[in-house]
Amino acid sequence: KTFRKDRIREIINKAIEQAEQNGYIERTLFEKEEENESARSITVKTGGSNTRVLLGEIAYAEIYDRRIILHMNDRDNIEYYGRISDLENNAGKDFYRVHRAYLINLAYVKSYDSKSVRVADADIPVARGKYQELIKVYLSYYTRSENL
């Protein structure tokens, strides 16, 4: 009998919810953190004031002359002084550093090859030694986001 993947996913999720409500299972802390991944944020000092930035809204970040430029999905870029390695450590597993100057949000990847990755509307260079790892990280992200 043929089946639709989305229908099976819906049935499994409903069964898990019922089991939770009846006290048969409890979600782990890790699963709860994954649900809140898109709500995670950082606070940056820009223009003399502190600004809260949702990580899920960052398409990619680049560092230029000690300034980090956050290229946002639906609003103006945000610039602040800092280290991209600090941002990388706080960003989580949905971000990947493809080049010493660029940190990308895997959710906004449109395409990639061995030389560049297209994020939002920008072509970002991929460092020579990073391409194989980019493939692994992106496939891992994709399977996680699609619940495969």
Q: Give the SSE string.
A: HHEEEEEHEEEEEH
Q: Portion of residues in helices?
A: 25-40%
Distance between the termini: 20 Å
This entry's quaternary arrangement is single chain
Class of secondary structure makeup: alpha+beta
Beta-strand content bin: 25-35%
Number of strands: 10
Radius of gyration, in Å, reads: 18 Å
Short description:
The chain has 148 residues and is α+β, with helices and mostly antiparallel strands. It is built from 4 helices and 10 strands.
Tell me what the structure shows.
Helix content is 32%, strand content 34%. The protein contains four helices and ten strands; from the N terminus they run ααβββββαβββββα. The strands form three sheets. A five-stranded antiparallel beta sheet has the order 5-4-3-7-6. A three-stranded antiparallel beta sheet has the order 8-9-10, with no helix packed on it. Strands 1-2 form a two-stranded antiparallel sheet. A hairpin with a 3-residue loop joins strand 8 (109-112) and strand 9. The mean pLDDT is 86.
How would you summarize the topology of this molecule?
Blueprint: H1 5-21, H2 29-35, E1 41-46, E2 49-54, E3 58-64, E4 67-72, E5 78-81, H3 84-91, E6 95-99, E7 102-105, E8 109-112, E9 116-119, E10 122-125, H4 131-145
Antiparallel strand pairs: 1-2, 3-4, 3-7, 4-5, 6-7, 8-9, 9-10
